[in-house]
Structures are given as C-alpha cells and as structure tokens.
Amino acid sequence: MVRAAVLPAVGAPLEIAEIDLPDPGPGQVRIRLAAAGVCHSDLSLSNGTMRVPVPAVLGHEGAGTVVSVGEGVTHVVPGDPVILNWAPSCGTCHACTLGEVWLCANALNGAADVYAHRASDGSDLHPGLNVAAFAEETVVAASCVLPLPEAIPLTDAALLGCAVLTGYGAIHHSAKVREGETVAVFGVGGVGLSTLQSARIAGATTIVAVDVSPQKEELARAAGATHYVVASENTAREIRTLTGKQGVDVAVECVGRAVTIRTAWESTRRGGRTTVVGIGGKDQQVTFNALELFHWGRTLSGCVYGNSDPAKDVPVLAEHVRAGRLDLGSLVTERIALDGIPGAFENMVAGKGGRALVIF
To answer: What CA–CA distance (Å, rounded) separates 286 from 223?
Structure first.
C-alpha cells in the first residue's frame, strides 16, 4: 500500500488515502518519491481553473529513486536517482517536429489513464499531469523520467521539474534576457524566485521584484532582486522611475491575473518584451487598444513550461547548481508532509511564502 493525496472531485478537499499501485508494465518505471513541490498549477487543477480527470493524485514536481522498471526501459535502473518530467514530448507531433517540445500536442495524454486504484474500494485513479507526485510512490511512463545529474541533492532536485525549468526558461528561452538588460518579475512564489535567480545568472543589472506582500522582500533580494516594489495601482510608474523613466527591457508575469499582465506590459520600455508565465482563468480578460500596440512596439508572449526542453536544460541547470549560481534550497520556505498540502494551497491563495516542499 502507498499513501497519497487524492483529489476526489474538482473543488473537493484533498484526502490522504492508501492506494494500490501496479507493478510497472512495458515502458514504465516505479519510483519512490523523496520530495514533491507544491505548485500553483496543482491548486489550479484542484479548483477547476485547469481541467483534470478525477479522482486523481495530483503533484507534478518531484524527484525520487527508481524502485523497478518494466520491459524495454534501459535509461534508468533500480536505485537510480531521478527527476519527474510531467510534460514529456512525443517527438512526432507538429510542435515537436518544429523543435517546440514544450508545446507537444500529446504531452498530457497520460493524465487520462487509470494508473492506480483506491485501496478502500478499488475505484480508478488518474495521475494528475501524468506523474502523480503527491504520493509515497508512483508508476510513470519512462519518458517522464530524467536521470538526476551528479552532485544535486535529491530532495531539492524536485524543484527542477517545474519551478526552476519554468523560471529559467522564461528568462533564457522566452524573453532571451541579455547581459546588462533590466528585468521586472511579478509574483515572488517558487517560479518568481527561480525567475529572479535566472535573471541574475543572465547578467541583468536592475532586477525589480513585485509582489502584494511586503514580507517577501527578503526572499526576493536573496534571489537577486536589486529593488522591491509592493504591488499597487502605481506599480508601472514606480518601475519606470527606477529605470530612468524608460521602463524595463523585460517583464515576466508569474501570477496569471489580468491586472498583473497589463501592469507588467505597461512596465516595459518602448520595444520591450513581456513574458506571461502565470496561468489565469478564462475570466481574466486583458485588453489593449490598437493605437497603443502600434505606438509602444512591445512584445507580449505566453510561456509554457519555460519554453524548455527538460532533457537539454536540466543538465545546464545542474551545472549552475554545482557552481553555486543557482540555489535550489533558497526557493523552499516550507517543508511539509502529505497532509500539509491543503495548508500550502491556502498559503498560495494568501500570497505567503515561496515553494512548499513535501518531504517523504
């Protein structure tokens, strides 16, 4: 038996329950989780902002140790430390053939599968975002498993599976921040903190962190922020003042709210770039008039999973960790057990802390 946090229905509270996991079949891997990050996407799945088949075991940012492998799996063996990749690319769809693996049309097909059963009644369970990391153990497709690079702490490595890939990719792949440019980051959660560190690694000069909570300033500055702005109706004006009345070269929005996206866009200079990482609901409508789009010449773009290729980017991130440029542990403000996930959801809604990490 394996303990897991089960979402019985959209909008329902998580339930800690025992589940039955099968042995790995052909092309599958069984993993004992060491840690799993609690991401805002998990909250969005639980409350219906994003769709997920239910009942489900959520959790998509995880790392652990291989317990056993199914027929045909050769890139990992029992005992190997690994990172979970919740969005594996198929390699054959249109996006994959273009090299845009983060937009793979088939990446989330596995989320509709039945991967386990509830021990109490045998009812079917789906793996939320493919990997079901909110459990002591999980069984996943081999394509969802990446070997952990050497000298990376296993528990902290869980963050590489989503928050760090997203923040790093937003800076290096989507916005393509160049040395000497100025950056504003909206939202100082796990992804925002990763984005701040990545902006520092990229050589940005002025790095402005924006959040509704004054209490996050210390976290933001430790991650690389040179300035901290408490969000208000004057945020864009404050950022322009900090940048010689020009605005930043790049703004990264990690919140997913219409007002924040609009403010991030207004905070960039003429010809600047705004990258939207945050996942908002359909009710969050952002409006622009045709004249301002022409006049400002700004670029506004969405960013999925940091526009990253995990197989290529994880080794790069690992090198930054080993060199001391990227501090994974500093992203974590709370280490919890499985039953602490609902509280971590509440803290996210309240805008408290950085990343909560479930330790098994």
So the answer is: 29
CB 327 within 8 A of CB 197: yes
pLDDT under 50 in the chain at which residues? none
Q: Residue 117 contacts by C-beta under 8 Å, 6 or more apart in sequence?
A: 19, 20, 123, 124, 125
How many other CB atoms are there within 10 angstroms of residue 213's CB atom? Answer: 15
What residues pair up with 161 in beta bridges, in sequence order? Answer: none
**Pairing between β-strand 332-336 and β-strand 355-359 as defined by DSSP bridges:** parallel
Three-state secondary structure call for residue 236: helix
Residue 135 gets which letter from DSSP?
A: B
Q: What is the pLDDT of residue 93?
A: 98
d(CA 28, CA 73): 7
Record the pTM. Answer: 0.96
Summarize pLDDT for 208-219 with one digit per residue, the tens: 999 999 999 999
Q: What integer pLDDT is reported at residue 131 of this predicted model? A: 97
Which residues, in sequence order, are CB contacts of 49 under 8 Å at separation 6+?
43, 279, 280, 281
